[in-house]
Design brief:
It is a single chain. This protein is of the alpha/beta class. It contains 17 helices and 27 strands. The chain folds into three domains: 281 residues, TIM Barrel (Alpha-Beta Barrel); 180 residues, 3-Layer(aba) Sandwich (Rossmann fold), CATH 3.40.50; 117 residues, Sandwich (Immunoglobulin-like). The strands form seven sheets. A six-stranded mixed beta sheet has the order 11-16-15-14-12-13, sandwiched between helices. Strands 3-4-5-7-10 form a five-stranded parallel beta sheet. The protein has a five-stranded mixed beta sheet with strand order 19-27-26-21-22. Helix 14 links the parallel strand 12 and strand 13. It is globular and about 80 Å long. The model has no long low-confidence stretch (mean pLDDT 96). Beta-D-glucopyranose binds next to loops.
């Protein structure tokens, strides 16, 4: 793959000659940052500082001191199920980074949504490792195609904010391999990612920043990572020593002057013989290659920021992520010719979400933001009267949600429950009682409880749709846009149904440990196994048109060894509107040799079809799709025997299925 840094001998030569020219002190000085978002440089050798910038959904104002395009947040991209869009987004994000002089984008953020309460769920993509991997690979490829480095984060098992600086995620090798690590494996093996951010937390007792098993054995030796590992900001404070971190495989401590990688401290450790110059050189070589590769004078494409092109991309991403959860009697889309009086109300209708540090380090300050009410006004112009009293209106749109304040979707704090604020719930109920055509639009980045769901005919999940979000929401409400999203996470009916919430050892744990006792049964894997009806299942999302699935065909019935299986079926848009469908392929082992999920997502495609159009959808499955990580032998294994393949519109809506036999 072209994006792999290691393919360039020239980079190696340049990194080595720089190293040869450096004094020991100069070398030691490079291991810790120079300021909040910059490394140090060595003017004597014309090595300019390397600038890094947040973050996952746009260039953070706090890191670049510039306004930038605010794209929808990670979970909205997760809901788009659209790797092509993710690639486009990655490229745009990198161009914005380049335009502020940054060489590294601190993203994508890819931790698995293990609990609905995680304050950072809004930044992450999904609860499923396959969807996670496909999107992460695309974002990274997009970013790195421009010569900017992606920095996939947070490695690893950083799935909550409570005690994030202290506690250890106690997670089995099997759950790590099947659920939490696949996205990092794909980031390295498939996308050739140039940098990785080590998390705040410890994993199985060892801080992620000095975790040799994670950083060296798995990431470098097993997956083949050749780039650099940077600590999460201030994460290194808790580790044992600089030598420990160096030996484990941490290349760069951020930010500032460093703690364990503080130059004076490293020097003492070096003089005491705690590490060798050779180890230091190797670590710096890994760092310098990316540093040089991404440098502004390395002939990389130019940057651009806040362009109409990026703003239109932000809008398309919002449209593709907005998820129609409920639509009784086809209340939506509203008919612009017939709606003369529209009530628009709710605490989030006029609120901005794209402001500095809103939500934490993923906050982006955009030059403008179309709020939902502005989007609706712009779309309707003078054709329709917009009021706040639902009584007598043709329809009522209640726009509610969480926002990026403490208690909402906010880095550093988890939520305490899945509820909308009480006054918002009351508003939904009173509006529904006053107007039968009540539509709830949710602006939030994580699953919500909806005890009022039965009271309203239509529910739209808008996520945090970015600076053009209001335009996208209005387009969906009035049918200019057919919503393209499906849920990337299960929405539980009650928090206690969720696998991390059966007791407090699992969540929030304590300062010492969080026990991942649900093991591989995360998200829908748990709901399916326990036969719990979720409020809305993983993969669910409605459309304004209808899709018909038929004629499943499996090519060849002799599936063996490393061979692939080819599966195809016919998909038709049988409705009267154009639209896209996210078709999902789930796999189950019929007689597993250890407890396995009822079904697991192993492929998906987002297919756009015009009204009346049909196409053939094909999937190719490799045997790895059938594999589990054997806890005894500590390796991937595939059982011989029968497997069920299910083509589905959601994890609970199987449309076609068939059995196949596999032999190693
Ligand atoms: C976050 C990272 C972020 C870094 C720099 C940390 O608090 O965990 O995701 O990239 O700050 O802002």
């Amino acid at each position: 793959m072209e994006s792999r840094v290691e393919q360039s001998e020239d980079l190696d030569t340049r990194a080595l000659s720089l190293l040869q020219a450096m004094t020991l002190d100069e070398k030691l000085s490079l291991l810790a940052g120079g300021s909040l978002f910059k490394t140090k440089g060595i003017p004597r050798l014309s090595l300019k500082p390397m600038k890094l910038s947040d973050g996952p959904r746009g260039i953070g104002f706090h890191s670049a001191l510039r306004r930038a395009t605010a794209f929808p947040t990670g979970i909205a991209l997760g809901a788009s199920w659209d790797p092509d869009l993710a690639r486009e987004f990655g490229e745009a994000l990198a161009r914005e980074a380049r335009s502020v002089g940054a060489q590294v984008v601190l993203g994508p953020a890819v931790n698995i949504c293990r609990t609905p309460l995680n304050g950072r769920t809004f930044e992450y993509f999904t609860e499923d490792p396959e969807l996670n991997s496909r999107l992460a690979v695309a974002v990274i490829e997009g970013i790195q195609s421009t010569g900017v480095s992606a920095c996939v984060k947070h490695y690893a098992a950083n799935n909550q904010e409570t005690h994030r600086m202290k506690s250890s995620s106690q997670v089995s090798e099997r759950a790590l391999r099947e659920i939490y690590l696949p996205v990092f494996e794909a980031a390295v093996r498939e996308a050739g990612v140039w940098s990785v951010m080590a998390a705040y937390n410890a994993v199985n007792g060892v801080a992620a920043c000095e975790n040799k098993t994670l950083l060296s054995d798995i990431l470098r030796r097993e997956y083949g990572f050749t780039g650099f590992v940077v600590s999460d900001w201030f994460a290194v404070r808790r580790t044992g020593s600089g030598a420990n971190c160096l030996e484990a495989g941490l290349n760069l401590e951020m930010p500032g002057k460093g703690s364990r990688y503080r130059q004076s401290r490293l020097k003492r450790e070096y003089e005491a013989g705690a590490f060798t110059e050779q180890a230091l050189d190797e670590s710096l070589r890994q760092l310098l290659r990316v540093w040089l590769r991404t440098s502004p004078d390395a002939g990389n494409p130019p940057g651009e920021r806040n362009t109409p092109k990026h703003q239109q991309l932000a809008r398309r991403m919002a449209e593709q992520g907005i998820t129609l959860l409920k639509n009784e009697s086809d209340l939506l889309p509203l008919d612009r010719q017939r709606v003369r009086r529209l009530a628009v109300l709710g605490q989030r209708a006029g609120k901005r979400n794209c402001l500095p540090l809103y939500g934490g380090s993923a906050g982006v300050w955009s030059p403008y933001e179309i709020t939902p009410i502005e989007g609706i006004r712009q779309l309707l112009g003078n054709d329709c009267e917009i009021v706040t009293d639902p009584r007598g209106a043709d329809a009522a749109v209640v726009i509610v949600g969480l926002g990026h304040r403490v208690g909402g979707d906010f880095e550093g704090r988890d939520r305490t429950d899945m509820d909308l604020p009480a006054e918002q719930q009351a508003l939904i109920r009173t509006t529904a009682a006053q107007n039968p055509n009540t539509i709830v639009v949710l602006v939030s980045g994580s699953p919500l409880a909806m005890p009022w769901a039965q009271d309203v005919p239509a529910i739209v999940m808008a996520w945090y749709p970015g600076m053009e979000g209001g335009t996208a929401i209005a387009g969906v409400l009035f049918g200019d846009v057919n919503p393209g999203g499906k849920l990337p996470v299960t929405f539980p009916a009650a928090l206690s149904d969720s696998p991390a919430h059966s007791d407090t050892r699992r969540f929030p744990g304590n300062e010492d440990a969080v026990h991942y006792e649900e093991d591989v049964f995360v998200g829908y894997r748990h709901f399916d196994r326990e036969q719990i009806e979720p409020l809305f299942p993983f993969g669910h999302g409605l459309s304004y048109t209808h899709f018909d699935y038929r004629d499943l065909e499996i090519a060849g019935d002799d599936w063996r060894g490393d061979g692939t299986l080819c599966l195809s079926f016919h998909l038709s848009n049988t409705g009267v509107r154009d639209g896209s469908e996210v078709v999902q392929l789930y796999v189950a082992c019929c007689v597993p040799s250890l407890p396995r999920p009822v079904r697991e997502l192993k492929g998906f495609k987002k297919v756009f079809l015009r009204a009346g159009e049909s196409c053939t959808v094909t999937f190719e499955l490799a045997a790895r799709a059938l594999a589990y990580f054997c806890p005894e032998d500590l390796r991937w294994k595939v059982d011989n025997g029968e497997y069920e393949l299910a083509v589905a519109a959601s994890s609970r809506d199987v449309r076609l299925q068939s059995r196949v036999t596999y032999a190693v």
